[in-house]
């Protein structure tokens, strides 16, 4: 009971002027707003040249080939498509959202003719983006990618030979 009275006195004295009360509201809203939205930023490895970073991303993606698919899998033992992308990019200092539709909002859009290894390639079905892969090679008309397939796990696939994915191609993003 004594503690309750002390607390009430403290609160009453703290807000005995309108200015203190406004200051309290301003500070409390600032503090609570810091953690309300998850921020996605690039990390400390930005100093690397683009080609070194790109080759590291492709190498890391290829090192995960044969890992099994699991819905919601974020690694390192199993992955779904967006979990694979988020894992590889985080390993290279770039934090991305967890869902492929959210990942498709990052970076800048590039055309199929401008695609480079390390770019993210997105696919849609039913009018919404629902799959993503990491471009690994650009020698054909369409690129090759590492992605996590629900039926085959993490694989590298040539889109020249994958009509299923070509029909669902949506966009390419460069981070």
Helix content: 25-40%
- State the distance separating the first and last CA atoms: 58 Å
What is the spatial order of strands in the main beta sheet?
1-6-2-3-4-5
Quickly give the structural class.
alpha+beta
How many strands, what sense, and barrel or not for the largest sheet? 6 strands, antiparallel
Percent of residues in beta strands?
15-25%
CATH class of the largest domain: Alpha Beta
CATH architecture of the largest domain: Alpha-Beta Complex
Along the chain, the helix and strand elements come as HHHHHEEEEEHE
* Count, helices: 6
Q: Write down the overall geometry.
A: globular
Question: Would you tell me which CATH topology of the largest domain applies?
Answer: endopeptidase fold (from Nostoc punctiforme)
Counting structural domains, the number is 2
Provide the residue-averaged pLDDT.
Answer: 81
Q: How many beta-strand segments?
A: 6
Q: For the record, what is the CATH homologous superfamily label of the largest domain?
A: endopeptidase domain like (from Nostoc punctiforme)
Radius of gyration: 23 Å
Uncertain residue ranges? 22-49
Tell me what the structure shows.
The protein has 175 residues and is of the alpha+beta class. The protein folds into two domains: 2-33; 44-174, endopeptidase domain like (from Nostoc punctiforme) (endopeptidase fold (from Nostoc punctiforme)). 36% of the residues lie in helices and 21% in strands. It has a six-stranded antiparallel sheet with strand order 1-6-2-3-4-5. The radius of gyration is 23 Å and the shape is globular.
Give me a quick take on this structure.
By secondary structure, the protein is an alpha+beta fold. It folds into two domains: 32 residues; 131 residues, endopeptidase fold (from Nostoc punctiforme). Helix content is 36%, strand content 21%.
């Amino acid at each position: 009971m004594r503690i309750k009275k002390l607390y009430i006195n403290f609160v009453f004295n703290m807000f005995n002027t309108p200015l203190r009360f406004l200051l309290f509201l301003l500070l409390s809203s600032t503090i609570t707003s810091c953690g309300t939205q998850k921020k996605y930023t690039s990390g400390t490895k930005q100093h690397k040249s683009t080609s070194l970073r790109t080759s590291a991303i492709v190498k890391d993606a290829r090192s995960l080939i044969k890992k099994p698919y699991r819905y919601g899998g974020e690694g390192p033992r199993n992955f779904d498509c967006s979990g694979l992308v988020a894992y590889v990019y985080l390993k290279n200092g770039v934090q991305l959202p967890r869902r492929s539709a959210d990942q498709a909002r990052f970076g800048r859009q590039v055309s199929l003719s401008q695609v480079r290894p390390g770019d993210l390639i997105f696919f849609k079905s039913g009018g919404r983006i629902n799959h993503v892969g990491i471009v690994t090679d650009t020698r054909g008309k369409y690129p090759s990618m590492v992605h996590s397939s629900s039926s085959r796990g993490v694989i590298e696939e040539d889109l020249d030979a994958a009509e299923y994915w070509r029909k669902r191609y949506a966009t390419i993003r460069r981070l």
